[in-house]
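[#protein-structures] MJ: dropping Aspartate aminotransferase here for a structure pass
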Amino acid sequence: NSAFQHLQQAPDDPILGVTIAYNKDQSPVKLNLGVGAYRTEEGKPYVLRVVREAEERLISDRSRNKEYLPITGIPTFNKLSAKLILGEDSPAIRERRVCTAQCLSGTGSLRVGAEFLAKHYSQKTIYIPTPTWGNHTKVFSLGGLQVKNYRYYDPRTRGLDFEGMLQDLRSAPSGVVVLLHACAHNPTGVDPTPGQWEGIRQVIRSKNMLPFFDSAYQGFASGSLDVDAHAVRLFVTDGGECLVAQSFAKNMGLYGERVGALSLVCSSESVATRADSQLKLVIRPMYSNPPIHGASIVATVLGDRNLYQEWTVELKAMADRIIRMRHLLYEALRARGTPGNWEHIIKQIGMFTFTGLSKEQVNFMTREYHVYMTSDGRISMAGLSSKTVPHLADAIHAAVT
Ligand code: PMP
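AK: finished. structure tokens for Aspartate aminotransferase:
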């Protein structure tokens, strides 16, 4: 008899479970468009050249050791990460109002942010978009916040429900936390325009709400690190406070190294100093301190003018390949005369296309065409290549006709 006799078999994670099902499939034409990880035109995982170079430098530096990092990680990594998202000339950084903690990628940064807010912020409710990344609800609720939703995506237009979003924010209680995807909204690929961001900013500031940015795709959406940071910087420039969770999983291809950062942009240096001290109390009993390797890679790349320059080139090449896949898929559907309007494939941005395919159509494509994706019809464009686009187009065509 086991102390755990009562346990029920838990379902696979809705996103990571797609890969498990894919791995079991024996078909030579099988295609995994579930998980959001970049693949080369040959369908292979990609380690950036600048990452290899940084690793070689780190390994050959015999003065390095394996001592524990401080609770909030590598100080230069933290400074450089904040500068990357907030901008070279950010007033908040200049005024020393930002505190940053190296955390376990985007997820860990969100979780630490949630626990910090649950402990120290007056409001315990966070509003997240419908739909959003599947893990958000669990990260925030287990982090101690109550989760509510605001309207975001309009299935009719396959675009932003801007009016619905503003209405929901206006009728939410003052002061609540609002989660915003900094760019390349996951899963919809639909972002507000700069003008719409300004409207969102005005509502959030007028209601004294606390914006919490999730920045998992900086540089991956447009190919430009600055363009993709626009929304965050808009909110920082007005002098108000916010939180930012950054991930280096996608833009530096460091998925499994778990490198990210949580920044608190505070109203003054004195608040930031106290917030930093409290962040340490949140982190210490969770995992003591973060791992060395991935953050050292990021600090090396961000801190070296040449490596940084090369990184922006590699990043743009990845973003461009994804954008090319959008055009190839769109053209392939047009060539097949597939019923429906598929313009959203080229309009949406970032790693994913929210196809609008139903759960039944997704099941059909998996069963008949060995194409794997999340059941909400989200496909990872980064998992496509010019060789596999025709097969996907055939599958979509068959599913909708
Ligand atoms: N937020 C969003 C919106 C994401 O899409 C992801 C990655 N899928 C993450 C956060 C976190 O990813 P990671 O923990 O691997 O950095």
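MJ: nice. The chain is about 45% helix and 15% strand.
AK: one more thing. Residues 36, 105-107, 133, 181, 186, 214, 216, 247, 249, 255, 260 surround 4'-deoxy-4'-aminopyridoxal-5'-phosphate (CB under 6 Å).
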